[in-house]
Amino acid sequence: MTDDADQGPPETTAIPAAEAARVRKIIHVDMDAFYASVEQRDHPELRGKPVAVGGSAARGVVAAASYEARKFGVRSAMPSVTAKRKCPELIFVRHRFDVYRQVSQQIRDIFAEYTPLIEPLSLDEAYLDVTENLKGIESATQIAEEIRAKIKAVTQLTASAGVSYNKFLAKLASDQNKPDGLFVITPKMGAAFVADLPVGRFHGIGPATSAKMNRLGIETGRDLRAQTLPFLQQAFGKSGTYYYWISRGIDHRQVRPDRIRKSVGAENTFSEDLFNSGMAEIELQPIIAKVWRYCEKSGIRGRTVTLKVKFSDFQIITRSRTLPQPVASEAEIAQVVETLMQPLFPVLKGIRLLGVTLSSLGEDENEAADSVAETPQLRLTL
Hints:
CATH architecture of the domain at 28-159: 3-Layer(aba) Sandwich
Distance between the termini: 21 Å
CATH topology of the domain at 28-159: MutS, DNA mismatch repair protein, domain I
Largest sheet: 5 strands, mixed
Pfam families: IMS, IMS_C, IMS_HHH_1
Keywords: Cytoplasm, DNA damage, DNA repair, DNA replication, DNA-binding, DNA-directed DNA polymerase, Magnesium, Metal-binding, Mutator protein, Nucleotidyltransferase, Transferase
Helix content: 25-40%
CATH class of the domain at 28-159: Alpha Beta
Active site: 125
Shape: globular
Strand order of the largest sheet: 5-6-1-7-8
Radius of gyration: 22 Å
Number of helices: 14
Binding site for Mg(2+): 30, 124
Domain UmuC: 26-206
């Protein structure tokens, strides 16, 4: 998967010098068009056809697209109307997240046969540290091949894998031979491989940052490596340090099986635009309820409530409020959301999507837990 949002680079984690100097064996496994592939597996009539999971021909947003659809330029997070315009034969199917989670658990069980150091990024991708693995296999490439074969045998789905000596390069490698591919970046290859890539391909550099770099004359990894650390820090703040090191193929972040989620959110796209606050309040109720159900199930709480609004012309605005204490109930979230929403009315254009996110997360007894790099928001799609 690729990160379309420009959320900044993963944070670096300080580790002992001896550990930093150790050559690690990291695998990044990424399922191929996961949601769409599950649908094609379970519905043979969809095989070989352009499929979009989520949305509809008239409304909504594409959650995932099959490779047949991607050939037409259809991508995840694309408005359905745009996707249909690009691919008139596109078939929309409803998502089945319960099924995707079940398959994801099957895949996770396969990972666990080799290592306990598994860092999931989403349902369909994860990092594995196999430097010291449960089967005593010296070759990380052999482990990646075995995992891919087992995933195919158990789930009838294909996975791509990248093998390297750090997380940054392993993730780049997994994209190299998609779909159903394997690519290895050795320590001797690392710096040269990065040098030839456009900066927009780098994990942690989104569209806005890539555009800024391009304006500064930074087009490739080689251009990025030519910049001094002070210059990058001045231009990009603390992110500059991360950019400085990855341009050299260096990334000392560890695989973290105990990552803490940064945020949890849900959103819904409506079949008809909303124009009044009463309807918006009604539509927000199941969204808020879904966020709170996750909080109750997981035992986490958050202090920052964010309301997301997408208008009929696809303009997106957000409004947030951070509370002194973690929210204690669904009603409290609803009260904050209402406070954030009311100033928006009356609206001059219809609302096509509403979303609610809870962030600044912590457990009931441990609100101060540190947030961890690369933890994507959990999006609970309605």
